[in-house]
Amino acid sequence: MGKPLIYEILQKPASSSIIGLCTAIWFYIQKKNIGYANVGLSYETAIAGHYWRIITSAFSHISVLHLLFNMSALWSLGVVEQLGHMGLGVEFYLHYTLVLVVLSGVLVLGAYHILIQKFKLEYFRRVTAVGYSCVVFGWMTILAVKQPSSKLNLFGVLSLPISFAPFESLVFTSIIVPQASFIGHLSGIVVGYSIAWGLIHGMNNYWAVTMLGWIVLVFVLSLKRTGAIDLSFIEIEPVTDPSFPTVGFVSSGNGRTLQMDILPDRGAGLV
What we know:
The protein is mostly helical. About 55% of the residues lie in helices and about 10% in strands. This is RHOMBOID-like protein 13.
């Protein structure tokens, strides 16, 4: 007989909370009939300033099967929270989940940029990434390095050796689900190895809270600037102060001279 579900939930509080959050978001998206293109991450929307999509894309899912696959894998990977004696544990899980969400999203955009600008593959301009897979693949990779004897259980039926799981899953999903984001999954693996090998390290409560604060700030301000949600209670004032001198270049013969127009002093103040 296995352990009672409530006991396992208490043993995996962070991953259980994320599973609950992703499930709630999926139900909300279905109820409001929101298309994944409205919350997903693409190169085109990113260059338009929709930075908030790095977060919304990670926690949104296209279908119930997509949600179940990712959450089933995440539940199995929650064992990381129980490995405090190996330098992992709940705090490690929370700290580096933040890193995985942000860096894997940035890495996806970087890969799209290279494919579009260097190789002229305009197709990737509108490819939209959605789902928690990047983070799942990142944790698969970290666990494969830290505890290679573990197994990844999917749906309580399929069991994979964790040491091979990242690349097995990468190939498997690319074949079975052709529309799955190969670049997104690979980005999660790359960030996962960077964390597991200590290339990205030093996260603690201070840096996690600081990082979370910046994420929230950029999220809210980008929502405001793009008009995705009406945030009329937030006002973003222009930086330009008319009392400052204006600087420009004026042609003079074969060279240029610097010209400054000093406006009358109107006083200065902070709002």
